Structures are given as structure tokens and as C-alpha cells.
């Protein structure tokens, strides 16, 4: 595995990842973060200066746990992940728009997209770290934060399943029009990631592509503590 984050992301099999995004709406990543980098991000959790906001999930009936939004400027490792995942995902985002007979709108660089967010009053950073202890879970939801949003986000698990925690699988639920919902349960090991839709994905039907809404969540952590790192590409109002 290459030593630095940009090279690791570049070395991923993007042809396969794009194919998976098109046929199933999500794609599981091999380990992108090594154990040392995972611990580096976990250690940011207890430094209040890293964050602009802390959310108690139970208070808002979002689930059971806590998450914190990073303050800009982001930690260097997180900034590298956000900047270097964006270009390939922008290609997929524009392809999805074309499938739905819409004009491509996502620029090739994250900085240009964030300029667009800022011009619409979305100026608050959205990458976050999540902590679930025994009994913790995250209800099904979408992370939109404003009129401008990016169609993909990326989740990384930062500690070791079956050593640091049990349970806590990632859940995706897809609602197709006039049909029952379809669920996916994805298990991630330390440093592995998941690319998934922020709002919807296009599905090919007999009359072309149509939109299927997708929500995501986390199943109950049955023991231990699970840390996750969420990379959202649009900023919030």
C-alpha cells in the first residue's frame, strides 16, 4: 500500500468502484487508513478545539451516541481524504446526473464545489467523528444540510471489530417508488471505508433511469466502543 493518502486513493481500483456505484449504489473500500492513522483520528476526539459542534444523539432522537463536527481548518489527514476522494466521486456524481437526464454540475476540484456551497450560504464544515458505546446506534437518515449537497459521502471505521466493539454494522436502506424497501448491511474492518449515496441513486428501469431514495444508519453496538469518521463533501448552513 502506498505511504501517503493521495497515492493510496489514486491506487484504488476506480474502474471497479465506479461499476459498483452504478450497479448497487455503494462501494466498500479496502483499508485506506492504517492503524496508526486510525488512532490519530480517534485522538482528535478529546480535543475541543478540533470541533465546532457536539451532538448528543439521544437528545434529538437520532439514536444513541455522540458525534462531533470538525472545525475548519480540518486536521491534515482528514483534509487529504476529503480533497483526494472528491475528484473521482465528482465523475460518478456527474454520470448519475446524465443518467437522470440532467446537466453535469460538479466541478473537478473540491475547492470549486465548496465555493459554490459558500455562495449559497453553506459555510460550516461537515466532516465528523462518531462515537457509539454499548447500546449505541444511529437511526436511518440523510446528511443534506442545505440546498446544495454532494451525492456521495464516505465512512471509515477507526477501531477493530470483535476486539474494541461488536455489532455496529453500517446499514443502507433503499426505497424504490411503489415498491418495498431494500436493506444492505455492510461490515467494515479497521481502516476500511464505505462510499454511499447522500440522498438518492439512479436505477435503470424499463423506461430509463429513475431515482431511489437511500437512507443510512448504524446497527446497535452490542459491546465496546465504536468510532467512525464521516466525510461529507458539502458544507452546511
List the SSEs and their pairings:
Elements: H1 5-11, H2 14-24, E1 27-29, H3 35-43, E2 51-56, E3 63-64, E4 66-70, H4 76-99, H5 110-119, E5 128-132, E6 137-141, E7 152-157, E8 165-167, E9 170-175, E10 182-186, E11 193-197, E12 200-205, E13 208-218, E14 221-224, E15 226-232
Antiparallel strand pairs: 1-11, 2-4, 3-6, 4-5, 5-15, 6-13, 7-11, 7-15, 8-14, 9-10, 9-13, 12-13
Helix pairs in contact: 1-4, 2-4
Describe what you observe in this structure.
The protein is α+β, with helices and mostly antiparallel strands and 237 residues long. Helix content is 26%, strand content 33%. It has five helices and 15 strands. It has helices at 5-11, 14-24, 35-43, 76-99, 110-119; strands spanning 27-29, 51-56, 63-64, 66-70, 128-132, 137-141, 152-157, 165-167, 170-175, 182-186, 193-197, 200-205, 208-218, 221-224, 226-232. It has a seven-stranded antiparallel β-sheet. The longest helix has 24 residues, at 76-99. The model has no long low-confidence stretch (mean pLDDT 97).
Reading the helices and strands in chain order gives HHEHEEEHHEEEEEEEEEEE
| Overall average pLDDT | 97
**Tally of DSSP β-strands:** 15
The largest pleated sheet is described as: 7 strands, antiparallel
The count of helical stretches stands at: 5
Strands in their spatial order, largest beta sheet: 1-11-7-15-5-4-2
Rg from Cα: 17 Å
Poorly predicted parts: none
End-to-end C-alpha gap = 37 Å
Q: Estimate the helix proportion, in percent.
A: 25-40%
Shape: globular
Instruction: Please state the structural category.
Output: alpha+beta
